[in-house]
């Protein structure tokens, strides 16, 4: 099972196919995708999203992706990227609200107003939660160069390299072929 998070859905909203060579599609610009996403995460916002909201989400998506890149490199994130995330978090003020759900206490947040800014805030908040409540070192990008999707590695040894089984199989087959080719070229080298 892969960990699911709203921020991961936004991070993985560009699609280049698994094999590379395909034109990149931006699902943030695909009509209806945003509405499906909000429905999936139970977020009420004005939909479809305004062009302004899509632009803000694209900027937030880049900033979150840069942070994951910094984690992979073991460096500090750029100030500018943290600023983008903080701006998104502050887009819509909210009030903390204590509730009891299914025998446990939960803290949720009620927005001052429900519109696209709340949705953007929820995306940034979801990323923040992954960073602070989970292990940031498990946030990775798929090693298939044609893919690059982000995922949260829940494997026991933190050694997962691929976003899903399709990428894993594809890359294993490629590695096998490459290995096989280098073996056979060794064989025929005089
Ligand atoms: Zn992948």
From TrEMBL:
Q: What is the protein's species of origin?
A: Reticulibacter mediterranei
**InterPro entries xrefs:** ABATE, ABATE_dom_sf, Znf_CGNR
Q: What positions belong to coiled-coil segments?
A: none
Stretch forming the signal peptide: none
Q: What are the Zinc finger CGNR domain coordinates in residue numbering? A: 138-177
Matching SUPFAM superfamilies? Jann2411-like
Domain of life of the organism in this record? Bacteria
Identify one Pfam family in the record.
ABATE
Q: What is this protein called?
A: Zinc finger CGNR domain-containing protein
């Amino acid at each position: 099972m892969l960990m699911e998070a709203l921020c991961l859905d936004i991070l993985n909203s560009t699609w280049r196919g698994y094999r590379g060579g395909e034109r990149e599609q931006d699902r943030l610009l695909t009509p209806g995708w945003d509405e499906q996403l909000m429905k999936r995460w139970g977020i009420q916002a004005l939909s479809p999203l305004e062009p302004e909201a899509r632009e803000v989400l694209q900027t937030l998506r880049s900033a979150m992706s840069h942070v994951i890149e910094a984690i992979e490199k073991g460096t500090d994130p750029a100030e500018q990227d943290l600023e983008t995330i903080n701006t998104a978090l502050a887009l819509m003020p909210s009030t903390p609200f204590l509730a009891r759900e299914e025998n446990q206490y939960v803290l949720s947040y009620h927005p001052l107003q429900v519109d696209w800014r709340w949705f953007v805030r929820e995306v940034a908040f979801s990323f923040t939660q992954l960073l602070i409540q989970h292990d940031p070192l498990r946030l990775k990008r798929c090693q298939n160069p044609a893919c690059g999707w982000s995922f949260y590695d829940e494997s026991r040894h933190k050694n997962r390299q691929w976003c899903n089984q399709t990428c894993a199989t594809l890359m294993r087959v490629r590695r096998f072929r490459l290995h096989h080719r280098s073996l056979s070229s060794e064989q025929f080298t005089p």
